Amino acid sequence: MPTAQPRSRESVEAVIKAYDVRGIVGDGIDADFMYDIGAAFGRLMREDGSTVVAVGHDMRDSSPELSTAFAKGVNSQGVNVTYLGLTSTDELYYASGVLECPGAMFTASHNPAAYNGIKLCRSGARPVGQDSGLARIIDELVAGIEPFDGPAGTIEQKDVLEGYGQYLRELVDLRGIRPLKVAVDAANGMGGHTVPAVLAGLPLEIFPLYFELDGSFPNHEANPLDPKNLVDLQKFVVETGADIGLAFDGDADRCFVVDEKGQPVSPSAICAIVAERYLAQKPGATIIHNLITSKSVPEIIAENGGRAVRTRVGHSFIKKTMADEGAVFGGEHSAHYYFTEFFNADSGMLAAMHVLAALGGQEKPLSEMMAEYNRYEASGEINSTLASKQAQEDRTEAVLAHFADRIESVDRLDGVTVELRGTKAWFNVRASNTEPLLRLNVEAPTAAEVDDLTAEILAVIRA
Length: 463
Hints:
By secondary structure, the protein is of the alpha/beta class. It has 4 domains: 9-159, Alpha-D-Glucose-1,6-Bisphosphate, subunit A, domain 3 (Alpha-D-Glucose-1,6-Bisphosphate, Chain A, domain 3, 3-Layer(aba) Sandwich), CATH 3.40.120; 163-264, 3-Layer(aba) Sandwich (Alpha-D-Glucose-1,6-Bisphosphate, Chain A, domain 3), CATH 3.40.120; 267-371, Alpha-D-Glucose-1,6-Bisphosphate, subunit A, domain 3 (Alpha-D-Glucose-1,6-Bisphosphate, Chain A, domain 3, 3-Layer(aba) Sandwich); 377-461, TATA-Binding Protein (2-Layer Sandwich). The protein is 36% helix and 23% strand. It is built from 15 helices and 24 strands. The strands form 4 sheets. Strands 1, 2, 3, 4, 5, 6, 7 and 8 form an 8-stranded mixed sheet that branches. Helix 9 runs parallel beside helix 10 (296-303).
């Protein structure tokens, strides 16, 4: 590997985003660059007093080469590597927590096959974002990384899958639930690796769909936030007579739920039911929700005696808020769910287990059980491609101007969130931190209101 040479700030900032590293392999992302990031991260962690970094990767074709290059970069700074091989992102967080070491997960999550990247964390799965290390890494890469004059670190192989499964089963005890039929779409991602290891031996009959690990995603993209990628699971649930369907994204840190009728369950409703479970055990606890979850989430938290804290979108932000506020649980409408007993990190598997526990602990079908948590209609996240930051800002301001005489309140915690006067309708417009997109979320009491408001806003954004 070459020594880490100075790089242009433009090239570095093109792939190091607000809370992770992500880009197209061969266009900003390659082994040399990952070696340099490894060296920068290793230097930063060595200065923090860490002696070892855990490194895991998903099933993408480029992941083994990129993660190995990164590991060698870490070694170049005198820091050892515990190389985990194939892992889900939450499995990497588990390793960072129990081994008490920083971690690096090679994945592009839900992005198409051409992408790859890294999610970084400090010891105990504490997030590394722009304000907590990524800006420093950018500066190191631009300036050139000082070589370390001590001995190089070593690489040790370690498999933590069994320990990860046991840890989760101790957090949510499913042994006493009624038997359930569970359809699972792993989307050829890491869920196919972790689901059998975690859920085996429980009163669950698993119906697997696309469990073969394949980073080319031959069946559909591993992005269950997009409704078209849920279609196969929806049909599969009905065909198999399953009580519930679970859909994981590529690195299996997100989980989406489908009911027994094949209908998607809102991630906000999942936030609400998991929050309710926590508050039954820990009255008055603090629950985090991001700003695009349904209004029903803070309402249900308050009704159950909890304290709701609103935060911006993104795992590094919500993890920090979890720690700062002493929260027991946090949820995002993108189906990231965070748990205090899981190092304040997110785990799609743990969220799924909470839903299975709730469903299996009573006799109603999932559709009936979840009905009370669905109080509003929502658009889901709608993306518009706007290549430049200036274009995104201009369109956002145009939306505000268009609604100027109807705005009850507006805040800029993350993009703009607008409450409309005389109604319970609201919308959020924000720029993606990882892609050239402007994202829109709309919620209102009725589907007709959502449709009308969405069309009106998109007409301005896409003008």
